[in-house]
Amino acid sequence: MQSDSPQASLFDDGATDGDSRVRRRDGRETVRVYTDGACSGNPGPGGWAWATAPKGDVRASGGEGHTTNQRMEIVATLRALEHFDDQDVDVVVVSDSNYVVKCFQDRWWEGWLSRGWKNSQRQPVANRDLWEPLIALVRRRGRVTFEWVKGHSGDPMNDLVDALAVEESRKQSG
What we know:
Blueprint: E1 11-17, E2 21-24, E3 29-39, E4 44-52, E5 59-67, H1 69-83, E6 90-95, H2 98-105, H3 108-114, H4 128-141, E7 144-148, H5 156-173
Parallel strand pairs: 3-6, 6-7
Antiparallel strand pairs: 1-2, 2-3, 3-4, 4-5
Helix pairs in contact: 1-4
């Protein structure tokens, strides 16, 4: 579920509370969290990671021995939103995964639900076991928006979560 994204003019000249939160003029706080997933082989050992902008001081990562890149992208987003679930903040998820971002920006999930968890080709939705809790969390929580960032384009935060996810993937390899 996508809520209205605040305009830049709503922010107090980038005033931050700690390292990762921006307080808007209306008093609401917004956290930008970058997410990424990686997989060595597809399927294969994989890793996921999330970190808060601007420095990545709040972060988490993990991995699985046999998974796919798409699954790790979803897990990274789910784990990030679970971390902020009990906090009264708006969350902007920034991801290089069109799979994750378009699910919410283009509201794919609504079609999946209306078709009984079938995709637009009437096939079962891949990774339903991960999409269900993520979609439920976004719907229940609200105040979550999604932004796409081009991967491997020099964005420092995207590079950070990519490196963390790749490191976790390597740990799973042995």
